[in-house]
Amino acid sequence: MELIRGLHNLREAGPCVATIGNFDGVHRGHQAILDQLKSRATALGLPMTVVVFEPQPREYFAGEQAPPRLSRLRDKVELLAEYGAERIVCLPFNAALRGLTADEFIERVLIRGLGVKHLVVGDDFRFGCDRAGDFALLQRVGERRGFEVEHTRTFALDDERVSSTRVRTMLASGNFAQAARLLGRPYQLSGRVVADRQLGRTIGVPTANLPLASRSLALRGIYACVTRLPDGRELPGAANIGWRPTVGSTRPVLEVHLFDFEGDLYGQRLTVVPCARLRGEINFAGLEALTRQIHADLAQARRYFRTATPLDATALELPCASTGWTYPLASAPLAPEPSTSDSSAGARPADQDDG
């Protein structure tokens, strides 16, 4: 897989079959698009190319008010490659790109940059300054300049389109089983362990701390989770995702405690699979109250792993390619949310963040 960053690096890209979008989470709707793209790429004997933007357009315009990401760029690239992308083009979404007219976008990005011969996009795809370009314009220019344009096929489960918004809603409601069904795999977060305050060690609960991007979070609260180590081991535990209001934090963090584990994880890349929501974040009166609650959370997480039913791809009616994992994914929070907690659930955003 080849990763190309920036419009200036596209000169040597050569002809391709391409699609353009956010691909946030690379869910089963996105996977259907990638399958469609792969078929055309194979038929034409051209590389399968996916164009994404960084930041995502809604993040550029809305900032912290944009919907929380399901996947960071690194994870997105890995997932796109896993589902067949041979070339991933990451374009910086900035004032220069935003300022391109629709015709300039077609000429500079699609024709001179990508050398596109076949383009797969949604029939509601808009592009160029003030979103003036549309699917019809692409078809007209394509007929004249020698490339074909094909619209994406809708992928639905339970008579509803699979979208990043729908995945976020399932995560916020604590339905990790349904989120996995929409994604085609369990939802997970990954990162490299960094040194932090080491407060957990002082109360008998050491944690591995993974910094998160300083934008809104798809999850926020305390979760029973399974953590995958670089050596392939998967260990149960509990994680806090958020801002740690009692001790104060200048950035969001994922801190995970692994049950019955001893060892040094600094600098290692971990993957955390949230399985069940225990509660939201609470601003406790002090460290003593926080410590009592943490130990109660750990006991609840241990009980959950002793009694929960593991689910796999077959149980969730997922494609065979998604086999190879088994996790006890809950379909609802384990307890009602207290009024003092910070919940990740909020008003459902408009379903306009895919593409």
TrEMBL record:
Riboflavin kinase domain mapped to chain residues: 182-306
Family matches, as Gene3D superfamilies: HUPs (3.40.50.620), Riboflavin kinase-like (2.40.30.30)
Region (Disordered): 331-355
Enzyme class, broadest EC rank: transferase
UniProt keyword Kinase present: yes
Keyword terms, alphabetized: ATP-binding, FAD, Flavoprotein, FMN, Kinase, Multifunctional enzyme, Nucleotide-binding, Nucleotidyltransferase, Transferase
Known pathway: Cofactor biosynthesis; FMN biosynthesis; FMN from riboflavin (ATP route): step 1/1; Cofactor biosynthesis; FAD biosynthesis; FAD from FMN: step 1/1
Pfam families according to UniProt: FAD_syn (PF06574), Flavokinase (PF01687)
The protein's role, per its UniProt record: Catalyzes the phosphorylation of riboflavin to FMN followed by the adenylation of FMN to FAD.
NCBIfam families, alphabetized: PRK05627.1-2, PRK05627.1-3, PRK05627.1-6, ribF
Protein name stated in the entry: Riboflavin biosynthesis protein
Species: Chromohalobacter canadensis
Classification of source organism: Bacteria, Pseudomonadati, Pseudomonadota, Gammaproteobacteria, Oceanospirillales
